[in-house]
Design brief:
The protein has 377 residues and is an alpha/beta fold. The chain has a domain at 69-207 and 257-369: P-loop containing nucleotide triphosphate hydrolases (Rossmann fold). The protein contains 14 helices and 13 strands. This is Sulfotransferase domain-containing protein. The active site is at residue 119. One of its GO terms (molecular function) is [heparan sulfate]-glucosamine 3-sulfotransferase activity.
Length: 377
């Protein structure tokens, strides 16, 4: 026997206490490994482990850990014609034909639509609203009213392009190009006289820069780095720099270039007001939406007359990506990588000229819509 070993009663009790303490420490460590928080930049967001890029929801699968039954119900959207997936995976997964029939799912003409504007925040707004259980949102831009080929196919073709919805849901689509085509408001009025219309608009200077970056990517994809590129008489003029694109050889704003023209929102809305009542149109501030999406989605809920669903907890700011993402019903659910492309530095003289150009139009827009858009111009 080792001379240093303590065989006294006190020594044996001391050993037992040490063993119990070690066991408690191991148990606490193990429980900590099963749950907790996941760091994202400077914040900590409640989450859980999952395979792949996102959830593939299935009613036959058990609910994710650490979620109560009420959250699980919300997660699967039991009243909808689809199950939710992540934005990366397409947002929606259509139910089986038997389920569609059981739930009374049909393709219906839109009750509401986002009709503008390009690079104003339309895609992000559509993605967020798609998770509201009272909204069935078509995920593609249908472009029915800007495509003569599609219109020739008729209204039933348009209806068939919509997403399945239940009788209790608002059917929606989003096509930002509708805002700028002069003949579109009359065509929408003829087919959808009672439709509710949503337009989300950014500071027109910021919108123009964002559109320039978008068009550069589009041109690069179409032209494949060839020396010349045909923009199909689109109305866009895209030079090597933003400054050369929006300022002409005389040093004046090139207002005929769609980079600039699409920021004169008041003209577009005035066309719609010839055919629709003011209460049928909701104007949202895209700059405020970028900074905090919660107030905007609450305004949409009120405008559409649907249930109070979104809370502040649905959204979180991802410091690494630099924009807001969704945390419910699927955690850590962000826009695709194409969102948030870096903007070029623009010289002060070009910015001043653009702001001077847009200022009277922005004031007219504020007066028309009774909304104070606090834009730089």
């Amino acid at each position: 026997m080792n001379d240093s070993e303590d065989t006294s009663p006190n020594g044996r009790w001391r050993k037992r206490l040490i063993s119990i303490a070690l066991g408690c420490l191991l148990l606490t460590f193990s429980l900590g490994m099963l749950g907790g928080t996941h760091p994202r930049g400077e914040s900590h967001i409640k989450t859980w482990s999952r395979p792949g890029t996102g959830f593939q929801l299935d009613k036959d699968k058990p609910a994710p850990p650490n979620e109560d039954s009420e959250a699980s119900k919300d997660f699967t959207c039991d009243k909808c014609c689809y199950r939710y997936t992540t934005i990366e995976n397409g947002i929606l997964e259509i139910q089986s034909k038997s389920e569609l029939m059981k739930r009374g799912c049909e393709k219906r003409l839109p009750d509401a639509m986002i009709f503008g504007v390009k690079k104003g925040g339309t895609t992000t707004l559509k993605n967020f609203l798609s998770y509201h259980p009272d909204i069935a949102f078509s995920q593609d831009e249908l472009k029915f009213f800007t495509s003569s080929e599609d219109r020739y196919k008729g209204v039933e073709f348009y209806r068939n392009e919509m997403l399945y919805s239940t009788p209790d849901q608002i059917s929606m689509e989003k096509t930002p190009a509708y805002s700028h085509y002069p003949k579109v408001p009359a065509m929408i009025k003829k087919v959808l006289p009672n439709v509710k219309l949503i337009i989300i608009m950014r500071d027109p200077v910021e919108r123009a820069i964002s559109d320039f970056v978008h068009m550069q990517v589009t041109i690069a994809r179409k032209c494949k780095k060839k020396s010349g590129c045909n923009l199909d008489n689109s109305g866009y003029y895209i030079a090597h720099t933003f400054e050369d694109s929006v300022i002409d050889s005389n040093g004046e704003v090139n207002y005929s270039n769609l980079l600039v023209a699409k920021g004169v929102y008041v003209t577009d809305i005035q066309r719609y007001l010839k055919y629709f009542k003011p209460e049928q149109i909701l104007a949202l501030d895209g700059e405020a939406f970028i900074k905090n999406p919660y107030p905007a989605v609450k305004l949409v809920e009120q405008f559409l007359g649907i249930k109070d669903y979104f809370t502040r907890d649905h959204f979180y700011y991802d410091v690494q990506k630099g924009f807001f993402c969704l945390n419910k019903p699927i955690p850590n659910n962000c826009m695709k990588e194409s969102k948030g492309r870096p903007h070029p530095e623009v010289n002060d003289e070009t910015l001043r000229k653009l702001r001077d150009y847009y200022r009277p139009y922005n004031k007219a827009l504020n007066d028309l819509m009774k909304v104070d858009f606090h834009w730089s111009s």
